[in-house]
Design goal:
The complex is a heterodimer of chains A (298) and B (293). Chain A is mainly α and 298 residues long. Chain A contains 14 helices and two strands, in the order αβαβαααααααααααα. The chains are: A mainly alpha (298), B mainly alpha (293).
Chain lengths: 298, 293
């Protein structure tokens, strides 16, 4: 027994550096959550700041913008989840119908591309392209006789602009997994269906979609965990004060409250709320993924 | 049968057109911005630039490359990518190996696994993380961009799943030959994991190159910003103070729009260059990590 313990020593040593870093930079901030229950003043630190119980939470609930922010977050995140499921599945099925390997490859290469660029680069491009005065999109709209739209400055348009541009960035990458699922479908099934007289539509409906179902169920359940993640990187780089009403989400709200206005206590309280709700959703979605799709993390 | 073939043809034509259209939508904005960056200031302002430069000139690139802030930020990013990728990969490999063991071979495996995985499920959030980085004296150093994210738990999971797919007999045979864990890991498992490691390395490089928020909040002084954080301030926040700082003679020949376009393109260039090469790896790598039998 003792020799077994000594034998495992090198494994503990391998884990040590990573475990220490995680302790400081991941578990350390979890300890910092006590700020959510304090009137935190950096000069006093964690130990001498005044305790306010749930004071920060009631302060947040009383802010007029809080519920709008929560609504925006869930609304944008839900639209992103739905669009991010439907479109890649459809594109994967359509892409699978393309017989010429070279064209298929080229299309794939082009649609994956935006995924690899930061929201700074894409934000810069989109701000230019969607600009109401000089942007190419509005010039095209005017060219075909439609009114020009201030996509990034109009509260009616902003949430949809966010969802569509996020879809533009990510759909190509998401199709990879569905394409992989398609290639793993047994070709004998299609041959049998053709013998039985099924056309392409029927084949898609009765073989392709059911064949993809496990991975669709898996990714749908896993995406539930991101219900409060409407995309900080994107919105932070695309919004402006005139669209706070429709575009301000929890993460951008926490940023402004905490790092711009230095209201550490309330900002941490909002962050804690988000973490707890997210944890609940992620746990439920992992449990569902395990039950429905037999998925395990490792 | 004839009708079937006809409708098939119609579908194929529509499908090709649609998908090619979609892929053009993904690439045309980049070409448009590239064309603007290579156009003259007057043509860009007149809005006559579509997908081909009008009044072709390199002036905006000349201006951007003469700005010391841009070059400093680029240098910081290059350091960050180099150091950060090395540290990330070293720790990923070192953590994935023990966690890939079975409980009978490593008793505390599950406890450690949960210790690491918990950090992706729950986090302290923005403000406490900022405080810890501040408290550990990383502010305004390059380490603020590397150390807090030094353990990429997602990549650890990807790699440990890959390790688990390798035949156990290899490891057992090496133990019989007198090799220790360390030797087995670096001499046998790591070389065998080249495809998985290549994927993770490329994602790590892209991740470090693209990240901007940590630079923005952990650097008090703008001269310590990495490239993407610097670009955030000049392209997104439209900080005119910085644009007007120097090189007024060169600035006269470019507009805000053309110089922004040039900086956007240069911020994306390394990714555009490595992208064709990483493609063939990441498709395999992603599928390996995400779809398990």
């Amino acid at each position: 027994m003792r020799s077994k313990r000594i034998k495992e020593m090198p494994l503990h040593l391998m884990l040590l550096p990573g475990a220490i870093l995680v302790l400081i930079y991941c578990y350390g901030p979890m300890f910092g959550i006590i700020m959510a229950f304090q009137n935190f003043k950096p000069a006093f630190g964690f130990f001498r700041s005044e305790w306010v119980g749930i004071g920060n939470f009631s302060y947040i609930v009383d802010l007029p913008s809080t519920f709008q922010v929560l609504y925006n977050t869930v609304y944008i995140a839900l639209m992103k989840i739905v669009a991010g499921l439907v479109v890649p599945i459809a594109i994967a099925i359509l892409l699978n119908e393309i017989g010429k390997t070279f064209i298929k490859r080229s299309i794939q290469t082009l649609i994956y591309l935006p995924h690899f660029l930061s929201w700074i680069i894409l934000g810069g491009i989109l701000i230019d392209v969607l600009s109401p005065s000089s942007g190419i999109v509005n010039r095209v709209l005017e060219g075909i006789g439609l009114p020009s739209v201030y996509f990034l400055g109009d509260n009616r348009w902003f949430p949809f602009t966010v969802v569509i541009t996020d879809l533009w960035k990510e759909f190509g990458f998401a199709t990879i997994v569905y394409l992989a699922a398609l290639t793993s479908i047994n070709p004998n099934l299609y041959e049998a269906a053709i013998v039985d007289g099924a056309n392409r539509w029927k084949q898609t409906w009765h073989i392709t979609l059911p064949g993809m179902m496990p991975i669709i169920v898996l990714l749908t359940t896993l995406s539930l965990g991101s219900i409060l993640n409407a995309g900080f990187d994107q919105i932070f780089n695309m919004y402006s004060p005139q669209v706070y009403e429709s575009g301000d989400i929890i993460d951008t709200f926490v940023y402004r409250l905490g790092l711009v206005d230095a209201q550490f206590g309330p900002a941490t309280a909002v962050g804690l709320f988000k973490s707890i709700v997210s944890l609940a959703f992620i746990s439920v979605s992992y449990l569902l993924a395990y039950r429905l799709a037999n998925y395990r993390i490792f | 049968m004839r009708a079937y073939l006809d409708s098939r043809k119609v579908f194929q034509t529509a499908n090709y057109t649609f998908l090619i259209g979609i892929s053009l939508l993904c690439i045309l904005p980049f070409i448009h911005v590239l064309a603007i960056s290579l156009s003259s200031k007057t043509a860009a302002a007149a809005g006559s630039v579509l997908f081909w430069p009008v009044g072709f000139t390199f002036k905006s690139y000349d201006y951007v490359l003469s700005k010391p802030e841009f070059l400093d930020a680029l240098l910081i990013t290059v350091q960050r990518v180099g150091l950060g990728t090395l540290i990330n990969m070293f720790l990923t490999i070192l953590i994935a190996y023990p966690l890939a063991k079975e409980v009978r071979d490593f008793k505390y495996r599950t406890a450690y696994a949960w210790y690491f995985v918990l950090t992706i499920l729950f986090s302290g959030g923005l403000i406490p993380t900022y405080m810890i980085v501040n408290k550990t004296y990383l502010m305004d150093t390059i380490w603020a961009l590397i150390i807090p994210g030094a353990v990429p738990v997602f990549n650890v999971i990807l790699l440990l799943n890959f390790f688990r797919g390798l035949p156990r007999e290899l490891e057992e045979a090496s133990f019989v030959d007198g090799a220790g864990y360390w030797t087995v890991l670096w001499r046998i498992l790591v070389p065998l994991s080249a495809p998985a490691l290549a994927t993770i390395v490329l994602f790590t490089i892209v991740g470090h190159w693209n990240s901007w928020f940590d630079g923005l909040i952990f650097m008090n002084r703008p001269e310590n910003y990495p490239l993407q954080s610097y670009l955030q301030t000049v392209i997104i926040q439209q900080d005119l103070m910085r644009v007007a700082s120097q090189n007024l003679d060169k600035l006269a020949e470019v507009s805000e729009r053309t110089s922004k376009a040039a900086q956007i393109f240069m911020g994306a260039l390394p990714i555009l260059l490595v992208y064709p090469f990483l493609q063939k790896y990441f498709i395999k790598g992603i599928v390996l990590g995400s779809v398990k039998e």
